[in-house]
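Supplementary Methods S3. Complex input for the magnesium ion-bound model.
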Amino acid sequence: MNQTVDFHSLTKKDFESSQAVRWCPGCGDHALLNQIQKLLPTLGIPRENYAFISGIGCSSRFPYYMETYGMHSIHGRAPAIASGLKLARPELSVWVVTGDGDALAIGGNHFIHAMRRNIGIKIVLLNNRIYGLTKGQASPTSEIGQKTKTTPYGNIDRPFNPVAVAIGAGATFVARAVDTDLANLGAILKQAAVHEGTAFVEVLQNCNMFADGTYEALTDKTTRDDARIVLEHGKPLIFGKQRDKGIRLKGLGPEVVTLGAPFGIGLSFYFESADRIYFDMPLAGRVYFHRVTDSVQPARANPAPQAISPAAAPAQVPAAAPAPVIQALVAPPVTQIPAPQPAMATTTVHGASTVDLIRQAELMLASNALSEADALLGQARRQYGDHPMIDYNLAVLRMRQGDQDGSVRSLRDAFEHGFRDFSLLNTSTEFAPLKRDPRYNALMDRYQY
Ligand SMILES: Cc1ncc(C[n+]2csc(CCOP(=O)(O)OP(=O)(O)O)c2C)c(N)n1
Ligand code: SF4
Ligand SMILES: [Mg+2]
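Predicted complex, serialized as structure tokens:
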């Protein structure tokens, strides 16, 4: 590193190394590099107190490009090295930059313990759902059905959700950002930097060489507003291009509703403490809600469970709410689905992956477009064969069609093909009549234990 510069006068340029940046043009990694180089001079930390540690991968080339101390270390082991450094020199700002392969495959064990120990390192995971450096093999975050060099007929493994893994491992700060939304990425990185414990930031990053467009629905102007919820402190969960979508509780599970629509009751949640509340949308219309610590304030329900119009909703933001802090961005899978208009099914299905077909079918179910859902599930079945989520959604569809026998059959197929999401069954109201059917209980007895 060059000579020490007075940290009061540091600029972005002071963090740019002399190394030529060798990522492909258009790679999402550039965005992170830029945002970090912009952020560090604003933190009031001397440059020699920063260290960037990485493993192996395209993303792990990061330390070369930073004019700070750092180490391009061994595959998957960056958290171990960073932990050692942070323990020996707690005054340092120690960052790990890693990839989905580096952090979650070979380095999975180190990653979870770094969260658990909470010693104050900052971990940024560039998740491109692929091994980029080694030219396109499936990673632990590759999607079901994703075609890669190692999965030429489509990936059959369910992907990790890195944020859920981090929460499960006891992380005290988690966030998710998209590489193309620079303002949001920058704001999240700043929050991570000032967080006292270990902070985890997943960056949804496009690899334009080997998994191009994997987050297209999140980044495309025409779909992104309906596909993302930006969690802002003290603000109601409204999203969508028309700002007309919200989240409400259905039974014990949250669901997406259209504000003011006949079936839309309105918002059920406000964020009291965004850094402790996490939403995910692994499949369309289904949202999991987690509290990360016991100290989180209870989510506040809407005063009256009645339809509210989009125009009325902002009035419910507490007047004295602190300045909004963009904390986390939700979630890739749902975003890959176009808005639930039956007409779109025919235009968007062509060439869609099986997982997209299933998600579109779930959206159709959510808007009660039963014949469209049936067609999509049929197409998914022809394309993929047996898949537990095809069966599960067929079971829902059959219930909606009043075909209880068909629903039981589909549910049995779902179990046969590996479906084990019992919490989903327990909380779903779809199967309420079926739960009194002895065949349902027999299935639960057989597969639950
Ligand atoms: C011990 C070891 N095993 C395997 C490899 C080969 N290898 C290099 S990078 C990589 C995966 C990197 O994927 P990811 O972390 O997602 O980084 P990306 O290139 O996508 O940014 C693998 C398997 C290695 N270098 N060392
Ligand atoms: S191969 Fe993919 S991840 Fe690697 S530099 Fe190129 S675009 Fe980025
Ligand atoms: Mg990768």
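Residues 56-59, 75, 99-102, 106, 126, 128, 130-134, 139 surround thiamine diphosphate (ligand 1) (CB under 6 Å). The longest helix spans residues 370-384.
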